[in-house]
Design brief:
With about 300 residues, the chain is α/β, with parallel strands linked by helices. It folds into 2 domains: about 230 residues, Malonyl-Coenzyme A Acyl Carrier Protein, domain 2 (3-Layer(aba) Sandwich); about 70 residues, Malonyl-CoA ACP transacylase, ACP-binding (Alpha-Beta Plaits). It has 14 helices and 10 strands. The protein has a 4-stranded parallel sheet with strand order 2-1-9-10, with helices on both faces. A 4-stranded antiparallel sheet has the order 4-5-3-6. Strands 7-8 form a two-stranded antiparallel ribbon. α5 packs antiparallel against α7 and α6 packs antiparallel against α7. The chain is globular.
Length: about 300
């Protein structure tokens, strides 16, 4: 029997103008953006819709903007989304997934992500650092590269995006060394990314501590469907596990390739990506080869999806 998973994108999926049509068409969406702006102390609707791009790329704004876009799509879909068997999100997207599964309220997810983004941006300022994408080396090869480059500073695998695309994270000097070593080891491509800092690495320890304190005050419920956690690439069904995994996620690698493998083993054949861009469906087409895949980004996408499934 065919099974369906909802995917939710994370940081780097943003673009100026994202979500404006969804915002214009719904009072409920506008209210959620206003709630987020009040929590953030900045007009996140204006930043999302008008930019400039450099401002939207700031971690403090990027994370709530992407979350809000995904939640806006969910609001417009409502009951028309139909049933699904699993949810998961890439890094930040895990909060969208938890909201979709009812483990967090939309407002609770917004509050949590606003705090997460602030803490992570502060950690980036405290520890100037970066990330790099390596294509063409497997996990063992990347691990060896990071071990050698660690003589220059902190450097660890951060995102296992696919079988051959792994992102590493760490201090500037160590990342530069790792990129050089990766090329020597036969990587097809090794490039430093334009990001705010070393996400999913020990350099985010201060943000991890801050989220530990903050999430203790947030209501989390058992999800209505299993959530595939970034940290373990396994299904989570109990509220008691969710907070711990969200805290660990900040300094642990995102096991997205392993998540896709898990979903394959569960016989998932249909993917719906909810939010800005098509990054996750693109990776899934290569690694999962689903029978059906669709991304819902705009109001037009919502209407097309609903017309097909009606």
């Amino acid at each position: 029997m065919s099974k369906t998973v909802l995917f939710f994108p994370g940081q780097a999926s943003q673009y100026v103008g994202m979500g404006k049509d969804l915002y214009d068409a719904s009072d409920k969406v506008r209210d959620l953006y206003q709630f987020a702006s009040d929590e953030l102390g900045a007009d996140i609707a204006k930043i999302s819709f008008e930019g400039p791009a450099e401002e939207l790329k700031r971690t403090r704004f990027t994370q709530p903007a992407i979350l809000l876009h995904s939640l806006a799509v969910l609001i417009h879909l409502g009951q028309r989304l139909g049933s699904y068997d699993y949810v998961c999100g890439h890094s930040l997207g895990e909060y969208s997934a938890l909201a979709a599964a009812g483990a967090m309220s939309f407002e609770g997810a917004v509050r949590s992500v606003v705090r997460r983004a602030e803490l992570m941006e502060t950690a980036c300022r405290e520890n100037p650092s970066t990330m790099a994408a390596i294509i063409g080396l497997d996990e063992a090869g990347i691990t060896e590269v990071c071990q050698k480059a660690s003589a220059k500073g902190v450097v660890v695998p951060a995102n296992f995006n696919s079988k051959t695309q792994i992102v590493i994270s760490g201090s500037m000097e160590a990342i530069e060394e790792a990129v050089s070593l990766a090329k020597e080891a036969g990587a097809k491509r090794a490039v430093i990314l334009e990001v705010g800092g070393a996400f999913h690495s020990p350099l985010m320890d201060s943000a991890k501590d801050g989220m530990d304190q903050y999430l203790s005050k947030i209501q989390v419920s058992d999800p209505s469907v299993p959530v595939i956690a970034n940290v373990t690439a396994e299904a989570v069904t109990k509220a008691v596990e969710i907070k711990d995994l969200l805290i660990r996620q900040i300094t642990s690698p995102v096991r997205w390739s392993q998540t896709m493998q898990y979903l394959l083993e569960q016989e998932v054949t249909s993917i719906i990506e909810i939010g800005p861009g098509k990054v996750l469906t693109g990776m899934a087409k290569r690694d999962m080869r689903p029978e059906k895949s669709q991304n819902i980004d705009s109001l037009a996408d919502v209407e097309e999806f609903c017309s097909i499934t009606a």
